[in-house]
Design brief:
The chain has four helices and 14 strands. The strands form four sheets. It has a seven-stranded mixed beta sheet with strand order 2-3-6-9-1-13-12. Strands 7-8-14 form a three-stranded mixed beta sheet, covered by helices on one side. Strands 4-5 form a two-stranded antiparallel ribbon. Strand 10 and strand 11 form a beta hairpin.
Length: 183
């Protein structure tokens, strides 16, 4: 799975989301839905509202330029109530955008690790076979990762490298710490 790790503050995350919109994409939050219909986020203000209301940390970046199959909504029982979730790899394809929120632990602010990536193959629900993502999706992924790299600083741990966004860097200077493999 091609993947790029990062430690981003909310302003850095919003920047990536805006660049995705600039590429003609929209976001689908990965959450439990009450019906087999997913939400679509089409503006930075909608995304920020979703985040402020405690929305999920994982989003699927979707574009009609490369979207070949509808997202597969599967039922699951939770506390006696039927909910629906988006099946991973059985749809799209999509670009995964995991952007966890900053948190405070023992009085210290931590900026957790997130990632942007896509599966090397996905289940094509129309053709009933595993397929590779189209070049048009790979091109959007490359543009987004290039933008992340250009606006970030590369930081290495023992086993991985992450890009630290400009907003995160400003908070690190004020005493915040990197989460994940750096904690």
């Amino acid at each position: 799975m091609p993947e790029l790790g990062f430690n981003f503050y909310e302003v850095d995350i919003s920047d990536v989301v805006e660049r995705g919109f600039d590429e003609g994409a929209f976001l689908v939050p990965d959450r439990n839905y009450t019906e087999p219909k997913h939400e679509e986020i089409r503006s930075v203000s909608e995304f920020q509202s979703c985040r402020e209301l405690g929305g999920p940390n994982l989003f699927f970046i979707v574009s009609h330029n490369y979207f070949e199959c509808p997202l597969e909504m599967r039922p699951v029982m939770k506390d006696g109530v039927q909910k629906y979730f988006i099946s991973q790899k059985n749809r799209g394809p999509t670009i995964d955008f995991f952007c966890p929120r900053v948190f405070i632990q023992d009085g210290t602010e931590f900026i957790p690790a997130g990632f942007i990536g896509h599966h090397s193959t996905y289940w094509n629900t129309k053709e009933q076979r595993m397929d590779s993502p189209p070049e048009s999706m790979k091109a959007v992924y490359k543009k987004l990762t290039k933008a992340i790299k250009e606006r970030s600083t590369l930081v290495k741990s023992k086993h991985r490298a992450f890009f630290v966004g400009q907003g995160a860097t400003a908070h690190l200077a004020a005493g915040s710490k990197l989460g994940g493999v750096f904690a």
